[in-house]
Amino acid sequence: MVRSLNANISNGRLYRDRWLRGPERTETCTTPLCNGKPDVLRSPLGRCLTRLYEITAGELTFDGQEIGQADTKALKPVRRKMQMIFQDPFASLDPKRRMRDMLAEVLTVHRIREGAAIGKRLDELMELVGLLREYLARYPHEFSGGQRQRIGIARALAVEPKLIVADEPVSALDVSVQAQVENLFGELRDRLNLTYVFIAHDLAVVRHASTRVAVMYLGSIVESGETEALYARPHHPYTRALLSAIPQPHNRGKRDRILLTGEIPSPLSPPPGCKFSTRCPYATDLCRESWPALSPLTAGREVTCHFPLG
């Protein structure tokens, strides 16, 4: 769970208010998705969750443990339970090391396997992500983009985590490869009972990859709920405008595209009230003066709006 989180990045404060409450492991294959602009506020979310960024204030709780202010020693066992998959698969791999060495290092550092058991575990990981065992002897430059991302997934799975944070894991891949990697995420989720925080900007990827969605605007969640219900009936004005931008190839008639006007405020200096009030066609004085809380609307739905849409 994250509440009132602050993180200093580029001399500014990132995130405020509660914006994410993750599912329990007992909930089957629930996948929160975060979508919205600008990207500078989406991607740091994953790095905050995994404590790759310094947390200066607020509450960050994982598996019943407060980790927002934990030191490096205390974080080591926590990071075995949560892993991150980065957007650029090539930049996240050491170009001078073979795949076998990189994956084996993860097992050794966390004391998960020793001796011959390491080789057996590496074979299991390659099978899980659909790569040949012979590829373990290769260097990163010898793989395609999709194969590199599969290696990144294998590295995350090596420690048998409870949570995987995936930051735009398919956006750097060719369209023809994206679907393969998306399907792999789904297969692994079902097979290993994983929980993902899958950060994406592509609305088609969001719908395909998730069972739950959280829509973000300037660093805060404005609406969350089950994927199909949210896509069918959005309750926040920003969500409705965002979804209206999805191309409809089978609808050749007039589309009800919602075009937003008004000034986009700086995420480092947002307006005193609702962050969306400068662009919202329904904004009132209350919206411009008071930030609404993320409140339950219907079963499984939450919205940050004084006047949610019907």
Automatic annotation (TrEMBL):
GO terms for molecular function: ATP binding; ATP hydrolysis activity. Its main location: membrane. It holds the Pfam family oligo_HPY. One of its GO terms (biological process) is peptide transport. Transmembrane segments: none annotated. One of its GO terms (cellular component) is plasma membrane. It is a peripheral membrane protein. Gene3D superfamilies: P-loop containing nucleotide triphosphate hydrolases. InterPro entries: ABC_transp_ATP-bind (IPR050319), ABC_transporter-like_ATP-bd (IPR003439), ABC_transporter-like_CS (IPR017871), Oligopep_ABC_C (IPR013563), P-loop_NTPase (IPR027417). PANTHER family: D,D-DIPEPTIDE TRANSPORT ATP-BINDING PROTEIN DDPF-RELATED (PTHR43776:SF7), TRANSPORT ATP-BINDING PROTEIN (PTHR43776). This is ATP-binding cassette domain-containing protein. It comes from Rhizobium terricola. The lineage of its organism: Bacteria, Pseudomonadati, Pseudomonadota, Alphaproteobacteria, Hyphomicrobiales.
